[in-house]
Design brief:
Residues 1-31 form the signal peptide. Keywords: Signal. The protein is an all-alpha fold. The chain contains 7 helices and no strands. It is rod-shaped. It starts with a helix and ends in a 6-residue tail after the last helix.
């Protein structure tokens, strides 16, 4: 039995020597490949679609302040990227919406001016100009109507009010046209919901 154990022990040593020799002949394991760092604009582009959808959903739910905050935070996180520029345009649309509680036409005009400063290669450059001009015209019409109301409070002979009344009717019609056009452009540029 001792002889059998010695013979088995010698066999084990030979097997271990063969395993070590085989491992020595194997090529070395490849060095760890460094992780590929995704470019900053690519991360922004990938993140933008989710952010845009979340902001649109917040707007639909009647939470425009949260949508505005989300778009502002995105622009702060990814400055100088095309996605941040798109976020600026979407923020302007949010502020231009006359039905929104966060409606701020002058702030929207400021955002659109900043967007257009990027040049004519911006994807919504032409639409931005149209929306900006509609907002400015809408604002001037609103000021004119307010001034008309103030002056109407002063007693004036009825026959001298006829031209003014005609002008007010005309201004109101223009204001309604401007609002309708702004709503049409906003609906056209709003992100589409995926089925």
């Amino acid at each position: 039995m001792i002889a059998a154990a010695r013979a088995g022990g010698g066999r084990r040593i030979r097997i271990a020597a063969l395993v070590l020799a085989a491992q020595a002949c194997r090529p070395p394991a490849p060095a760890a490949v460094p992780a590929v760092v995704e470019p900053f604009p690519a991360i922004a582009a990938r993140t933008w679609s989710t952010t845009r959808e979340a902001a649109a959903e917040l707007q639909r739910r009647g939470e425009p302040a949260q949508a505005d905050s989300l778009l502002t935070e995105f622009r702060t996180r990814f400055p100088g990227t095309p996605a941040a520029t798109e976020a600026l345009f979407q923020r302007a649309l949010l502020r231009a919406d006359p039905t929104s509680r966060a409606s701020a036409p002058r702030a929207a005009v400021s955002d659109l001016d900043a967007y257009e400063a990027g040049g004519e290669l911006q994807p919504h450059h032409a639409a931005s100009g149209v929306i900006r001009r509609l907002l400015l015209q809408n604002d001037s019409l609103r000021v004119a109507i307010a001034a008309e109301r103030i002056s109407a409070a002063v007693l004036v002979p009825r026959d001298s009010l006829k031209p003014r009344d005609d002008e007010v009717v005309k201004l109101r019609a223009e204001l309604e046209q401007t609002r309708a056009e702004l709503d049409r452009v906003r609906r056209r540029l709003a992100p589409r919901r995926r089925p």
